Amino acid sequence: MQESKQQRNFLKLYEPVHDRFERFCRARVFGKMEYHDLMNDTLLIAFQKMDTLKSEKAFLSFLIGISVRVLANHHKKKKEEAYPQQQGFDVLDVNSKTERDAEVYLLHKALAMLPEEQRECIILFEISGFSIKEIVDLQEVSESAVKQRLKRGRAKLVEILTFESDYKKMEVQNGTK
After folding, report:
1. Angle 78-33-115 (CA atoms, 0-180°, nearest 5)?
2. Contact status, residue 140 vs residue 62, Cβ threshold 8 Å
3. Exposure string over 97-117, b if 16+ CB within 10 A, otherwise e
């Protein structure tokens, strides 16, 4: 009986944040693992550790903190396989079923090229809708560090996306595509 109450409480907290959490996971794991795997692993751990949640308002932050640790552990395990760095970037995200598949794919591909801290910061702020203060707490850095990561990450994204766009135009003009 107690477990069903815990399940109801967990679902009550999870349902309102599901979409934001899914967007975070999709963007964060692009080309590295299936986002559903990250979500499932995170939700299992979160359910098991519900008693450590200090505030129901912090539930999404709680989930994202767990997912970051799950992803870090996944990366440690995968390091042994030693794939070339660029190999994962051309993996098609078959889970993306939106009207803007191409744009989402290119954005995720560009995000995957950013340094880890910048990528996570941009995903939290721009995609998941966290405030700078919330990101400071999640990443355990200063406010100026978060702002700097956002600034540098955005600049790098513009550079990457502009280069991708220019490269594709050049291919079309040369008849190689």
Report:
1. 75
2. no
3. eeeeeeebbbbbbbbbbbeeb
Tally of structural domains, the chain: 1
Token reading at 134: 């919330």
Q: Please count the other Cβ atoms lying within 10 Å of the Cβ belonging to residue 124.
A: 26
Query: What radius of gyration do the chain's Cα atoms show?
Result: 18
pLDDT along the chain (177 residues), means of 10: 78 92 86 84 92 89 89 70 49 54 80 90 88 89 95 91 65 57
Range of the domain at 140: 2-174
Q: What is this structure's pTM? A: 0.64
DSSP letter for 52, please.
G
Check if the beta carbon of residue 10 is closer than 8 Å to that of residue 47: yes
Look up residue 32 and give its DSSP letter.
Answer: T
